[in-house]
Amino acid sequence: MPRSISSFSKRDAQMLAGVGLSSICMAALIFGRLTPLHGRLGFAVTAFVLFVVTYAVMSSFTESRPAVIDRVMTVLLTAAAAVALVALGSVIFFTFKRGWTALRHLNFYTEDLRVTGPEQPLTSGGVLHAIVGTLIMTAISLVLTVPLAVTCAVFLTESKSRAVNAVRTIVTAMTALPSIVAGLFIFATWVLVLGFPRSGLAASISISIMMLPIIIRSADVVLRLVPGSLREAAAALGAPRWRTVWHVVLPTARSGLTTSVILGVARGIGETAPVLLTSGYATSLNLDPTNNPMASLPVTAFKLVSSPEPNQIARGFGAASVLMVMVLVLFTIARVLGGRPAGRQSTRQARRAAAQSLADLARIEPESVPEAPQLGERAGRLPAILQRK
Amino acid sequence: MTAELRTVLPPQERVGEPEPRPFAGRQGRSDKVFTRVTFLSGVAVLAIMGAVGFFLTLESTDALGRVGFSFLTTSVWEPDRGEFGIKAVLTFTVLIALVAVAIAFPISMATALFIVEIAPRRVKSWLVSLVDLMAAVPSVVYGLWGAFLMQGQVIGLSRWINTWFGWIPLFSVDGADPGNPLSNATVYTASTFVAGVVVAMMVMPIQCVVMREVFSQVPPGEREGAFALGATRWGMIRVVTLPFGRGGIIGGTMLGLGRALGETIAVYMIISSRFDISFHVLESGSNSVSALIALRYAEASDFGLSALFSAGLSLFLITLVVNFTASWFVARSRSGADSEA
């Protein structure tokens, strides 16, 4: 446990509150009385600058110069993080606020836009086709990506090959591959060279290209966290490499791997440009990924808001909100799963492992198994030696 | 007289440099298959990246063969008249990316420092997830936010910058009249600056993630050493964290630059395209390679498509160079992590 190095006292808190109050008052005075300035953004910036200056002056009465600089920098760093979070909150809030008029109608989730024109009210038509399209495309890209990505991450962590560094560099570079280039690539190969039609499948392949490096990179980090002692223990028991990976490394990192796959999906689900190029937009439900354009939520949102009709724009924001909900749900799952570090078992896993090792013990050394009545008594509970503190 | 006391060591036998014992024994058949399969997966990823470059080149030979080097020096984009080039488009793309990085860099670095050095432990893991979430918010959502909400806010800022700093050529605007409070705001809409502000939102989490990873690898020994010598927290950050993380800061920033260069949909939704080069970032109208492709691919002829492929190829090559430099910096900074802890 690292020693706490903060020395934040009650007096500091009082000073912060006082300085904050006074800077807001000064800003209000400057804005309302002294100058003809206006605007919320300007007010916030002025108040913040005044806050930093006042705080520095107040601190300099009691503190030395380095301590004053330290306090000012702490305020600046905290403010930058706050700006980032406020921006994120504003993005999410604004999308739901504008989409709400469309979201509250049930037909938004059960109809497509086959017969609904741009001027028709929001009680008709919806984005079912886009929701289904997004789910189909994401499912196909998952099937395509996960085996290759996990195998490649295993290669990066387990192999002694000299190619490892080259592959790792390429993967990092690929994480910032422009999505439109991935779309163009699939368009060039799948549609122009191989002659397949533009379809949901083509879009799924281009999404896979975007997801692949993201999953590999985070799976690589997760697999490197698996303790080397576990690998060595497996090797010492005579397990071949592939058994070590399959029965020890991958199960140990299971929750982390799931998280990295989910994060990859969360990125892939929102890809717009490649889907636009390789599948295109459709207004009706299409369940066949190999033929005809298939709409996805981001493409639908993009197409709908370019219309001048307010109802169509509301539908576009509605589609974006549904997309945001999917991303948020994926993130919540990832957060719950990823909260557990590699190798920590849940109670149920620990109980199953304990039962398994008791069974093994009975097979190998029948005489040293705890007596039957005792075992029955403790059924469902872990033997004391296996209980984790 | 003092007796001299001295320890005499017996002559040491020279022992060679310690060598690691070769670990690999004879591989069984199953392990040979395992090694082969995992190696192939690595090769497959290399092959995909190579194929992207190869097929883009293949499809663009037609157009590039026709215009040759004037592709780099022409500003207009009219492939069906045989006159097209990426000079203007590329300039605007780079301008948008630079504006985005200039805005995102201070925020992402400060956020990374806040997460690693200042945030209490319980807040820390939440912040990490939230920054990841920012990276996963679809670009179309950022585009909606930028076009429908941010545009209105940023215009005020543009007007303010133009009024006070308009004498700097970068911030001057043709047709703007700062003296007149009722002047038309449309000279500031759909500009490089507005697009840059929105792209900054997408770039910031990418930079932040890389910087945070590097900052959190600062050896605790050096950190505690600075504290033991009486450094304040900012003093420690300045002399330990920042120098240690320099590679990550450069690499992360460039990785964000690569992402900014390739951003499509959000930029497409905000800018109105123009083909005359202008370095006035606040001025209405801008362009980008990826937005050009998204705008023109639908109604392009076969030759026009080939021209768009050559634009895509140039974007691919530029981001490739930027990203490789970035990942080289990041990889190097990580290998520098072996100091005494």
**H and E string of chain B:** HHEEHHHHHHHHHH
Sheet of most strands of chain A: none
Largest sheet of chain B: 2 strands, antiparallel
Shape of chain B: globular
State the separation between the terminal residues of chain A, measured CA to CA: 17 Å
Structural class of chain A: mainly alpha
Q: Which class best fits the helix and strand makeup of chain B?
A: mainly alpha
Based on CA atoms alone, the radius of gyration of chain B comes out at 27 Å
Portion in strands of chain B: under 5%
Number of domains of chain B: 1
Overall 3D form of chain A? extended
Q: Could you name the CATH class of chain B?
A: Mainly Alpha
Specify the helix fraction band of chain B.
55-70%
How many helix segments of chain B?
12
Determine and state the CATH class of the largest domain in chain A: Mainly Alpha
What is the arithmetic mean of pLDDT of chain B?
A: 85
Q: Report mean pLDDT of chain A, rounded to a whole number.
A: 84
**Biggest interface between chains:** A-B, 100 and 102 residues
Uncertain segments of chain B are 335-341
CATH-derived topology of chain B: MetI-like fold
* Total strands of chain A: 0
Note down, in words, how this protein is organized.
The complex is a heterodimer of chains A (389) and B (341). Chain A is mainly α and 389 residues long. Chain A folds into two domains: 10-101, no CATH class; 128-338, MetI-like fold, CATH 1.10.3720.10. Chain A has helices at residues 10-34, 40-62, 65-103, 107-110, 128-158, 163-174, 179-193, 200-224, 228-236, 241-252, 254-268, 273-278, 297-305, 310-338, 347-364, 372-377. In chain A, helix 5 crosses helix 13, helix 6 crosses helix 8 (200-224) and helix 9 (228-236) packs antiparallel against helix 10 (241-252). The longest helix of chain A has 39 residues, at 65-103. The radius of gyration of chain A is 29 Å and the shape is extended. Residues 373-379 of chain A have low confidence and may be disordered. Chain B is an all-alpha fold. Chain B has a single domain (47-335), classed as MetI-like fold (Orthogonal Bundle). Chain B contains twelve helices and two strands. In chain B, strands 1-2 form a two-stranded antiparallel sheet. In chain B, strand 1 and strand 2 (83-84) form a beta hairpin. The two termini of chain B are 47 Å apart. In chain B, 48% of the residues are buried. Residues 335-341 of chain B have low confidence and may be disordered. Chains A and B meet through helix 3, helix 5, helix 6, helix 7 and helix 8 of A and helix 1, helix 3, helix 4, helix 5 and helix 6 of B.
